[in-house]
Amino acid sequence: MHSSLLLVYLCLGFFTNVFTSPITYEDVRGTPYTVSYDHRAITINGVRTMLISGAIHYPRSTPGMWPYIMKMAKNQGLNTVQTYVFWNIHEQKPGVLDFTGRANLSQFLQDAADAGLFVNLRIGPYVCAEWNYGGLPAWLNQIPNMSFRSSNEAWKTAMKTFTMQIVEYVNPYLAKNGGPIILAQIENEYNGGDQAYVDWCGSLVTNELSTTDIPWIMCNGHAANSTIETCNSCNCLDDGWIDRHRRDSPDKPMLFTENEGWFQPWGEAVAIRTTADVAYSVAEWFAGGGAYHAYYMWHGGNNYGRTAGSGITTMYADDVLLHADGTPNEPKYTQLSRLQHLIANYAQVLLSQDSTRTPLPYWDGQKWSTGTQQFVYSYPPALHFISNQFDNTLGVLFRNKNISMTGHSVRIFDDNLNLLWDSANVSGIQSDNTEFFPIVIGPLQWQTWSEPVVSNLSVFTSINPTEQLTITNDETIYLWYRHNVTLTQAQAHTIVQVETRKANALLFFLDGEYLGEFDNHDHSQGALTATISLDLSTFKPNQRYLFEILSISLGLDNGIQANSFEHKGIVGNVWIDGQLVGNDETNLWEHQKGLVGEYFQIYTEQGSSKVSWNTQWTKGINKPVTWFQARFNLDHIVREDINANPILLDAQGLNRGHAFINGNDLGLYWLIEGICRDTPPCCCQQAQINCLEPTQRYYHIPSDWLMPENNLITIFDDLGASSPGSVGFVQRVILT
Ligand SMILES: *[C@@H]1O[C@H](CO)[C@@H](O)[C@H](O)[C@H]1NC(C)=O
Ligand SMILES: *[C@@H]1O[C@H](CO)[C@@H](O)[C@H](O)[C@H]1NC(C)=O
Ligand SMILES: *[C@@H]1O[C@H](CO)[C@@H](O)[C@H](O)[C@H]1NC(C)=O
Ligand SMILES: *[C@@H]1O[C@H](CO)[C@@H](O)[C@H](O)[C@H]1NC(C)=O
Ligand SMILES: *[C@@H]1O[C@H](CO)[C@@H](O)[C@H](O)[C@H]1NC(C)=O
Ligand SMILES: *[C@@H]1O[C@H](CO)[C@@H](O)[C@H](O)[C@H]1NC(C)=O
Ligand SMILES: *[C@@H]1O[C@H](CO)[C@@H](O)[C@H](O)[C@H]1NC(C)=O
């Protein structure tokens, strides 16, 4: 075993290190090549290849941004990108597939290929991803006997059909056809108890999907025998995954699919993961024998339109290597870039041998003690990774040298003990080197139009309120519920109760007068009863009024198990002062799908003229369910390249709603204040910043949605904008 390894090292390591560079897509593009694996790595044409990867989700940016992002990824030191495939943007209506615009997966694959990047295609098609319904189309709810992600015929048929369609669609981009796709994924983080379902996923891979001729992975959960189980975590060495994998799957390589940058919920202050912590975890991974590493995310991008999962902000994973708006996040970007280039340069030496871990003595104050958290991972004759898993700085003895190691850090040395890289030291990198320049300063020449609280749009009626998705199919986040009521009393504190769901807002109106709102913006799903006290003292008892509730979905939860169906809107009863509203065949509930402004698409050039705008826009201030529209020019941009120097909407002065630029939906904006907690909200994060400021004030506008002049901005604010005059645009510029 040992001598044969040495032979491998001599043949591959020494030889290739001296005479060839590490393999990249550029070396194989255009001609069929093979992809397989051994216990150490994925192999390309039989050669072990170090895959240095990061997640970039195509619909979280735009076709006009993709070439820029790919170029940045390549320069920063990636040789592979990974993306999920998002079922619910490709099949919004059953049987109708869409690959246009942000859903143009083949163009995304081509852009990766053009930049010289391999692709790991994570099809799922359940993807979680803090994405609306974890990628599942809402219409799956209507299929009889559906049970998601289980050995259920309805699910298996739907999953297999979509997966096969994607595999056929990407066929030209597979390795066997000279394309960039070298690795695919079935399912995602499956931790349910249905072994028959896991085996069925495995049989898909060995049968129908075997024509792809590439390895398939299953990540962070149960994996079928025919797939490679991979790690999603903050640190796959410290958390024991590497040891488990060696024991359970000694013949499969170690792949880290998601080194988590985490995500941002509304109402929380922005959370960050330190550069030192990410750097430590990536270096430990390669030291410990990892052969594929992916940042999740490398570029988070934005949840444009209606794509965010429950309670998730429009910017996605902003604190990763490339900010949501496309600017480098320093010092993370450069610190990890240096590591990646180092790993790439030494890839053949690393991959020519197995990782060995040797404990090192540490200075305990009096003497050198045997380390249980201090190790060296040596890859002779080239590299030595010294790691200190302990919390604090201490001296570590390596080759008779006392090496000072910061807590949770890795230092990489060459064989002469020259320091090549230190995970804890970013002192030479300029951090936070961007500035926001105002380029369009308000007030804009707004005009305003109030969404009618009663309209002639068609309605659906039922004796009791109907669940929202049944009516909307999630094609809009808005549903009006209407019912005529006779008040038994009219008082200042009238209690209204509604059986609803988490991540849902409800606005209450009586005869068109706005009375108040309830919202829950948890990043989760589940039923709850909304209870709100409304002031009805200006109304009269024993009179008939039109009672209305505007229900707003704040995203479908992405954590989907077998029967954890997500619902929205009113999912049970409504009571006013304890009196049930409904259950009366002579007085029905009416439901209007979406807004009149959406119906006419007044946020587009063609639709804008279909309503009569009021140029006295201050009349729209602080009025719920109100639209605003204006035009703006990019007269004062600081730098021409607006991919590298992005333009953002400064939403200060607005409340909550959607903003549209030239007909494109930027996603939900919300100026909700971000709370800081005693401990960071989740997992890999160490700190929160900007306490008590809006969770998200700036909203990225993709370059291909903008024109030099005469851009149309449209706002729909459901709660009412307090100061639309403050709205403006900024350009984010890297200081040089
Ligand atoms: C995807 O992009 C390519 C390249 O721009 C284009 O030729 C193709 O028509 C696009 N596909 C769709 C469905 O729009
Ligand atoms: C419904 O699904 C279950 C498995 O989840 C299966 O046992 C049952 O036969 C199915 N029923 C129909 C009518 O398809
Ligand atoms: C998977 O491998 C395990 C362990 O070798 C074996 O017990 C099991 O039957 C296999 N499952 C399938 C579906 O082949
Ligand atoms: C080793 O270095 C540490 C700090 O880096 C220091 O505290 C300690 O005294 C040194 N030990 C010896 C024996 O030099
Ligand atoms: C950190 O790196 C800088 C060079 O970038 C170097 O001057 C400095 O000595 C290093 N600090 C430590 C503690 O090693
Ligand atoms: C509603 O009425 C307006 C004018 O009264 C008309 O222009 C519009 O087409 C009607 N909409 C529908 C959906 O019937
Ligand atoms: C409420 O009553 C009015 C007057 O009878 C009627 O026109 C309207 O359609 C009713 N609305 C609902 C939601 O039942």
From TrEMBL:
It comes from Rotaria socialis. Pfam families: BetaGal_gal-bd, Glyco_hydro_35. PROSITE patterns: GLYCOSYL_HYDROL_F35. Its EC number is 3.2.1.23. This is Beta-galactosidase. Keywords: Glycosidase, Hydrolase, Signal. Residues 42-341 form the Glycoside hydrolase 35 catalytic domain. The keyword Hydrolase applies. Gene3D superfamilies: Galactose-binding domain-like, Glycosidases. GO terms for molecular function: beta-galactosidase activity. One of its GO terms (biological process) is carbohydrate metabolic process.
